[in-house]
From TrEMBL:
E.C. designation(s): 2.4.1.187
Pfam families to which the protein is assigned, alphabetical: Glyco_tran_WecG
InterPro entries (UniProt xref): TagA_TarA (IPR034714), WecG_TagA_CpsF (IPR004629)
Organism: Nicoliella spurrieriana
Protein name (Swiss-Prot/TrEMBL): N-acetylglucosaminyldiphosphoundecaprenol N-acetyl-beta-D-mannosaminyltransferase
């Protein structure tokens, strides 16, 4: 990691501590140079899981960039008195890289989400990001990872977008990233959002750090996942 980016370590995970525009410039340059790049977007739930699972922790530590995705990580940085400049979400990186990739005719492989979501995503990509060359696009409920890896290997895309949820997407990237140089990023539920199947919180909720509450109200089944946030913050306080 000799990219000179400032990093802040919380519970053994080193998050980039920069602004969105600067980060994007670094990623674009790396894609242009076909540098092998793994971005992990980590929220408190993922950080907590990593803390309990050393193998997953080492996978996250293998990423070239870990972005602070979630207000809970920003809060944790304040607790340890090492503030992080900006939250950087997977969804925002995804949209920005697609827009830039469309202008620059980059190729991309997409795997993740349910078949109906992928059908809608194809339409959105065609309409809103017409310059992207789709080297492959499929849902995330495949049985054989190797089949997907072979498709990526054969089509040699500039960017691989995986929306399989955590830890699956990071495990996949860790296992296969060396078959193709370029960007690899795990995007959680981002295909659901970009395709219009799930709504991201309105800006007001995001600005008031309440995106987690909005998601909970829309999807009450997320409660056990949200409950990890206070547990994570407790661990951070203890680690001080
Ligand atoms: N998913 C998938 N394959 C699986 C399990 C999940 O493609 O075997 C997809 C799921 O359809 C959803 C995404 O992974 O699109 C996970 O979304 P979630 O909301 O859990 O992610 P978050 O944004 O909270 O990290």
């Amino acid at each position: 990691m000799n990219d000179k980016l400032k990093r802040t370590t919380i519970l053994n995970i080193s998050y980039i501590n920069t602004n969105f525009t600067h980060f994007l410039k670094i990623i674009q340059a790396r894609i242009n140079n076909r540098e092998n790049t793994f971005i992990a977007t980590v929220n408190p739930e993922i950080a907590y899981y990593a803390h309990q699972n050393p193998k997953y922790q080492s996978i996250i530590n293998d990423a070239d960039f870990v972005t602070p995705d979630g207000i809970g990580i920003i809060k944790a940085a304040q607790i340890i008195h090492q503030p992080i400049q900006s939250r950087i979400t997977g969804f925002d990186v995804f949209k920005a890289i697609l827009a830039w990739g469309s202008q620059n005719h980059k190729s991309a492989y997409f795997a993740g989400a349910k078949p109906n979501v992928i059908a809608d995503l194809k339409a959105v990509l065609k309409d809103e990001y017409p310059g992207i060359k789709i080297s492959g696009i499929r849902d995330g409920y495949f049985q054989d990872n190797q089949v997907v890896a072979d498709e990526i290997n054969a089509t040699h895309p500039d960017m691989v977008f995986l929306a399989l949820g955590s830890p699956k997407q990071e495990e996949f990237i860790h296992q296969y990233r060396h078959i193709n140089n370029g960007l690899w990023i795990g995007l959680g539920g981002s295909f659901d959002v970009l395709s219009g199947n799930t709504q991201r919180a309105p800006q007001f909720w995001i600005n008031h750090h309440l995106e987690w509450l909005y998601r909970l109200l829309k999807e009450p089944s997320r409660l056990p996942r949200i409950m990890v946030i206070p547990k994570y913050l407790k661990l951070v306080r203890k680690s001080k």
